[in-house]
Automatic annotation (TrEMBL):
Keywords: Cell membrane, Membrane, Transferase, Transmembrane, Transmembrane helix. Residues 461-480 are annotated as: Disordered. Signal peptide: none annotated. It comes from the Bacteria. This is Putative membrane protein. InterPro entries: GT87, UCP010361. It is a multi-pass membrane protein. GO terms for cellular component: plasma membrane. The chain crosses the membrane at residues 39-59, 115-134, 163-183, 195-225, 231-257, 264-287, 329-347, 354-370, 403-420, 426-446. Its main location: membrane. Belongs to the glycosyltransferase 87 family. GO terms for molecular function: hexosyltransferase activity.
Amino acid sequence: MSEPGSDDRVHPTREDPVVGALSESVGGRFGRYAVPHRWWTPARVVLAVTAVVFVLGMVQKAPCYQDTWRNGEARYSKMCYSDMPYLYVGRGFVERIWPYTDDQEIRQRFEAMEYPVGISYFAWGASVVTHWVSGTGSVDERSNTPIDVVSNEPQVLKETNNYVAVSAVMLGIATLLAAWFLLGVHRRRPWDAMLFAAAPVLVFNALINWDLLAVTLVAGALWAWSRDKPVLTGVMIGLGTATKLYPLFLLGGVLVMCIRRREWVPMVSATAAAVLAWLAANAPAFLTGREDWQVFWTFNSERGADLGSVWLVLAQNGHDFGHETINKVSWIFFIAWCIGVLLLGLAAPKTPRLAQLGFLIVAGFLLVNKVYSPQYVLWLLPLAVLAVPRWRDQLIWQAGELFYFAAVWWYLGGFLEAGGDGESPMYWVAIVLRMLTELYLVVIVVRDILLPQHDLVEREDPVGRRGSQPISTRSNDVAV
C-alpha cells in the first residue's frame, strides 16, 4: 500500500486530545520538524498492534483452553467462552461432516449449522485443517459411538483445542486484512485504523464466534468504495451477506450517496455484483442440502426474545411478546429507522461518508434485534472507527460494550441473581447501558453529518476528497 508524504498525513497526537495527552509520556506530540521513522510506517505500526491485540485475545481464552473447554462454570466466571469448541463436536465437524448434507441419519445425530454459509464453510474448512494438524486418521468408528462418549475421548479433546487454535490463526489473518483495508480508506488518515487495531472490544470478543470474517468483508467494501470500485464493493457486500446478514445494509448507504450524486451506475453495479456474489456463495450449500441451508432463515425467524436484547428486559419484567410480534415490531422500527437515515443523508449539507451511513443503519438494526451476542460489537467496529475517529467517543462506547461483555457471562453463570430468585436486575442495567452508549455514538455521527465542521475527516478535507466515496464523484457534491 502506498504511503502519502509524511507532511500530508493527519497526525493523531496533534488532532486528538486523548492521543496528544498520552504522547507526553513518550516524547510529546508530533512536531513541525519531526522526521517519521523510515521503517515504522503507519501501516506497519497498525498491523503490528493488530497482531499483538489479537494475541491478547487468544490469551484471554487461555483458562478455557487449558481445561479443554469442559469446566462449565469457569467459561462464565473467567469470561473465556467461545462457540467454536462446542460446535466442533455438536455440528459434526469431529466426523468431517459437510454442513449441508441431505443424509437424514447424520441430521438425527448432529444439528445443522444455524449460521449463514460463509461461516459454515469456514468452520468446516478449519475442521479439515484440524484433522490434518492433529494427525487424525479414519473417523468411521466415531459414527458408531454415542456422541457424548466421542466428545470426551482424549484424541477428540486434543482436536477440539487444535480446532480453536486453527480457527484463531485463520481469523487472525482475516483481522490483519481488515486492518489493512481500513488503513487505505482515507489516504491522509491511516492512523484512524489504529482505533480498530487497538480496540479493547477486539481483545475480548474476537474469538467468541466467527464474526470477524464478515468484519473483514465490510472493511473490504469500505476500501473498495473509497477506490472507486463499485463492482468490487458489491462483491465484498455479497460475500459479507453470505457470512452474516448485516453487510447487506451497506447497500443502503451506497443508495443514499448515489441519490445525492445523481449517479446510478455505481448503485446498479454494486447491487448486481452483491446479488451475484451472494448467489455464487450460497449455491454449493443450496444444491447439496437445501433443508440445512434454510435452517439459518427459519431459526432466526422463529426465535423469541434472547440474550442482550431490549425484548429480554421486557419479557423478564412481565411483558413477554411472542416471536411474531417481535418480528413485526422490529421490522417496522428498522424500516422507519432506515427511512430516517435516508432523509438525514439527503438533508445533510455534505454527502455523508459510507462508514457514517453504514454505522447508523447497522446500529438501528442491533438496537431492536431479538438477540445481542457480545461479539456483535465487532459488526460496528470498522464502521464506527471510520465514522467517528475520536478516541474519547470510541472509549465511551466500548466501555458500555465491555460492561455488557462481563455482565452477560456472569448472568449465564448465575452470578448476578438477586437473592437467588432468578432475577438479574444488573443484567438489565448492562443491556440498557450498552444501548445508551451505542446511542451516544449514533448521536455523534448524526451531529457530524448535519454539522460537518465537527467531523474530523470533513474538517481535514473540506473540498470533498473523502475516502469512502467514489473518486469520480468527489467534485460533484450537490445537496438534494
